[in-house]
Specification:
transferase, alpha+beta, six-stranded antiparallel β-sheet, 8 helices, 282 residues, D-amino Acid Aminotransferase, Chain A, domain 1, binds N-(5'-phosphopyridoxyl)-D-alanine, EC 2.6.1.42, nine-stranded mixed β-sheet, D-amino Acid Aminotransferase, Chain A, domain 2, BCAT-like_N
Length: 282
Amino acid sequence: HTAYVNGTYLPEAEAKVSIFDRGFLMADGVYEVTSVLDGKLVDFDGHIARLERSLAALDIVKPVTKDELLQIHRELVARNGIDEGLVYLQITRGGAPGDRDFAFPDPGTTPPTLVLFTQSKPGLADNPAAQTGIRIISIDDIRWGRRDIKTVQLLYPSMGKMMAKSAGADDAWMVEDGYVTEGTSNNAYIVQGNQIITRPPSSEILSGITRTAVLRFAEEAQMEVAERKFTLEEAKAADEAFVTSATTFVMPVVQIDDVALGAGTPGPVAQRLRKIYIEESL
Ligand code: PDD
């Protein structure tokens, strides 16, 4: 497969960046994951708009234009024959040979690093996990305070996933002051009666591109949406729950810690939203 590094397409095994790259030394970088359905990018504009917000928040200069980014995404999808899958994009602040400094280098002397690669994921739309639903555990949210910036600082979410695995579950929801913030790599929702409840965007969560689309589709389908914080206790007493992300679309949650939700099977609201989301994205 072909990857892209700073203007060059090359075999994945030859794709390399410097050991002085601040992405490597300091997690000083941001990323985006865009899904591909039927060979087409899903919500490309939304992902690039968020990328621009992440870069601006960290004072990293976007190395290429949006049109060039679109071109690179399409080129990789074509070269790698991706029908269903993902395009991963990362931009770091770069780094000069021999340097390791907490202060940012002068952007005039140190160009940012841009890398992209693809992952083929057949069954992204037809995901068997959506039939059974996923089980989650709750963990403390001990991340930093700017979770709205999509940085590559993913160690705690990664540990959360491992905690879930060792507990025999699929994923974890993070909880702060009794309220659910989000999943390790997705946004969290509960359903009470006919109402879909999800936390409003703030610096405490990443504002999902899938989230924005799903809430729009829910409103178009006359479903009731409330953007408010909800507690872990409310979640355990909810009729349904689900998560959204570019890698899972809408994924039903059937268990939180040791509590089964509703009938312990994917709920009707989550299933309907998943169907609408995939149809609209195809
Ligand atoms: N993660 N919240 C967190 C913490 C995330 O990492 C993600 C996405 C989301 C959902 O955002 P979106 O709908 O734009 O994918 C919410 C990506 C998929 C990842 O890290 O692989």
